[in-house]
Design goal:
This protein is an alpha+beta fold. The chain contains 14 helices and ten strands. 51% of the residues lie in helices and 15% in strands. The structure holds flavin-adenine dinucleotide. Its cofactor is FAD. It comes from Lentzea flava.
Length: 370
């Protein structure tokens, strides 16, 4: 049973709120212009133990609370992507139980000393993960890696990249995960939103990687990736409804203060009803996503519900950020208004971590409809 109490976690909420107000909000516009967040931010988050949540301490409920609070206190989904890339880069390492890899990569990331990325997507294979081509050929104590990865979050800054490589037969049975530290080239990509989160294309040209950097067993990579997708999708669903909540809060404030035709915008019934409709969509999404997150946290098999949760939250978010820009009028189109950023940032949520159509297809298959 989901109760308010489960997600209350007052102390954590207050800690994250204070951190966001002090360390993120005053600098976010500058980081958006810089195209990345500074390394010191990772250290500051680590000092408060925020980067270890879900690994060294805490659970998925704490991660949900963290994500909600950062975004609703004035952060953004882009900021989350940049600062918490370890959330997708190290879980496979953590779960492999390999102490050497944990010591060399996961723990330094949790301490904010190293930045990690996850590289699965390639120019020729995104949704279709089983089709990746980047090759890793064993040569003594090394793998020799050649190929290309793209759209890699924090790929410009990464000290290590947990990389999906082909070590075996074509299809999902021949994929492994290998941690790669250097020897590859990077190209920074410009994009629509998430400007404070650097995104890169990576080229591997016969890069020699120590075989001891293999995560888990050879050719088990596909299952490792799919298992972690559950948490990534929940996180993106939370980012979606939290972004929508923030956009609604800003819009309520705006419509209370903005006067047209001699009265505040909010005094028009069409506006107040639109705001109520936005609040309803957000609440439905939040309640459902939180319920599914609690089930994932208990270790239940709910792949179908995770698909529903991500799609429902993304749809709610798309509608709300669009309405938020509309109700801000011309100011909603200006870079200086926060809703403009959320509108651009939100667009990726229905593409990354499994596109909406792919979520629906997966749910249809699980339900026996396809
Ligand atoms: C800002 C950003 C950050 C990212 N970060 C990372 C990262 O850190 N690591 C990483 O590995 N990847 C990352 N990605 C890649 C992301 O996961 C992929 O873009 C996503 O999985 C979709 O793959 P694709 O772009 O190749 O689209 P495609 O697979 O080519 O699909 C294109 C579109 O076709 C539709 N579609 C696809 N398959 C089907 C189907 N079966 N049925 C119906 N419709 C379908 C969907 O609308 C989809 O959006 C990132 C992407 C972006 C934009």
């Amino acid at each position: 049973m989901i109760t308010k109490d489960l997600y209350e976690r007052k102390e954590l909420r207050q800690l994250v709120r204070d951190f966001t107000h002090k360390e993120i909000v005053p600098h976010l516009d500058q980081w958006e212009r810089d195209g990345e967040v500074p390394r010191e931010l990772h250290k500051k988050a680590a000092e408060l133990d925020l980067l270890g949540i879900g690994f060294e301490h805490g659970d998925l409920i704490d991660s949900v609370v963290l994500t909600e609070e950062i975004i609703q206190s004035g952060g953004s989904s882009g900021l989350m992507a940049a600062l918490f890339t370890l959330g997708i880069a190290i879980p496979h390492i953590w779960q492999s139980g390999n102490e050497d890899l944990k010591e060399r990569f996961a723990r330094p990331a949790i301490r904010g000393e190293k930045i990690g990325s996850l590289a699965v997507t390639e120019p020729g294979a995104g949704s279709d993960v089983a089709n990746i081509r980047t090759k890793a050929v064993r040569d003594g104590d090394f793998y020799v890696v050649s190929g290309e990865k793209t759209f890699i979050t924090s790929g410009c800054r990464a000290d290590f990249v947990t990389t999906a490589v082909r070590t075996g037969e074509p299809g999902y049975k021949g994929i492994s995960l290998l941690v790669i530290e250097d020897g590859f080239t990077r190209r920074k990509l410009d994009k629509m939103g998430w400007h404070c989160s650097d995104t890169a294309e990576l080229h591997f040209d016969d890069v020699r990687v120590p075989a001891k950097n293999l995560v888990g067993e050879e050719n088990q990579g596909f299952a490792q990736i799919m298992r972690q997708f559950q948490v990534e999708r929940i996180t993106m669903a939370v980012e979606a409804y939290a972004t929508a909540q923030r956009a609604l809060d800003l819009t309520v404030n705006w419509t209370r203060n903005r006067e047209t035709f001699g009265r505040p915008l909010i005094r028009n019934q069409v506006v107040s009803h639109r705001l109520a409709g936005m609040a309803q969509r957000i609440d439905l999404a939040r309640t459902y996503v939180r319920e599914v997150a609690a089930r994932v946290n208990r270790g239940e098999d709910c792949v179908t519900e995770v698909c529903f949760a991500k799609n429902a939250a993304v749809e709610a978010c798309s509608e709300v950020v669009d309405a938020a820009v509309q109700l801000h009028g011309g100011m909603g189109y200006m870079r200086e208004s926060e809703v403009e950023r959320h509108y651009r940032d939100a667009r990726i949520l229905g593409i990354g971590g499994g596109a909406s159509e792919v979520m629906t297809e997966l749910a249809a298959r699980r339900l026996g409809f396809a």
